[in-house]
TrEMBL record:
InterPro entries: CheB-like, CheB_C, CheY-like_superfamily, Sig_transdc_resp-reg_Me-estase, Sig_transdc_resp-reg_receiver
Family: Belongs to the CheB family.
Phosphoprotein is among the record's keywords: yes
PTM field: Phosphorylated by CheA. Phosphorylation of the N-terminal regulatory domain activates the methylesterase activity.
Domain notes: Contains a C-terminal catalytic domain, and an N-terminal region which modulates catalytic activity.
Protein's UniProt name: Protein-glutamate methylesterase/protein-glutamine glutaminase
4-aspartylphosphate PTM sites in chain numbering: D56
The keyword Transport appears for this protein: no
Source organism: Spartinivicinus marinus
Domain Response regulatory: 5-122
Domain CheB-type methylesterase: 160-352
TM spans (from-to): none
Chief location category: cytoplasm
Amino acid sequence: MKPIKVICVDDSVSMRNFLKVALELDKRIQVVDLAADPYEAREKIRRHNPDVITLDVKMPKMDGLTFLEKLMQLRPMPVVMVSSQTVKGADDTFKALEKGACDYLAKPFDPQVFDEFTEQLIYKVKAASLVNLSALNKKQDNKGVIQKRHTVGHLSKLRLQKQIKLIAIGASTGGTEATKEIVMSSSLHGPPIVVTQHMPPVFSSSYAKRLDRLLPVPVQEVTGMTKLEPGHIYIAPGDKHLLVKRSRLSLQAVLDDSLPVNRHKPSVDSLFYSVAENIGANALGILLTGMGEDGAKGLLAIRQKGGMTIVQDKATSVVWGMPGAAVSMDAAIMTLGLDDIAKEVASLYQPSLVINL
């Protein structure tokens, strides 16, 4: 098996060397070169033709966001952003994801988390080496991918029959932009939406605030027991599992601080299992792009309880790991492109379809 060739771009000598040592702990990864700024990176990318680059945001001569935008226009390739774990760093990271980066990681400042950082870094670089570049680059996607024709409206008909009272979305690599696209047309007339996206704590808070600014409905990170309201979106915090419980009069989001599930905290499986148990046939589960299998078994549980289940198709997924695992388990009632998932969800927002939690 060929090694995964990586170039690390960072203006800090110590961080560049740390990234190289950390990545080469895995025998499949070969760090072929290091670059202190985007101009060095440009020459070394031409020379080595790497499979993945790691990219800092703040650098001399040209910042990482500008370089990323130029790179994705001229030579699209998998990029993992390695940025500071601050609110500003998180905002820059989400801008990078909009420009085509496939994943991100917060730099470690506490030596006690170096081992965890190294494990995540190797995991994300390996995932990046498998990404679907057509899905990352929408211009290429529109030219090269023929979407399967889909007649929208299945969910609105289904909701008329038995009412979908909650939408649960799970995602990982490439999921922040995919989720944003699905919820862009959210309405106060729609059912509550709960989202588990694999990301660190500071990033989950920034992601919720970013969506809240962009969308016409309230979006919040869940910080404690919260009553779920129609037309509201609830994001799992980056260090706890998000669960849904049913009380006598309402649905509630609650947090669980137990061990990671499938190496993840928050875990999509944890969310989906709670939805299957407490919402059952009135739930809609959506599993989006991501590496691994987190969420597949939970989605199957929702289907087995009579709920509706959708997975993102391979053509539009950045990584078809989690959705592909769900398909192999027969957990998906529908497998759709991202645009069609968004249209189906939007069809639920008709005022005549009255929410009754």
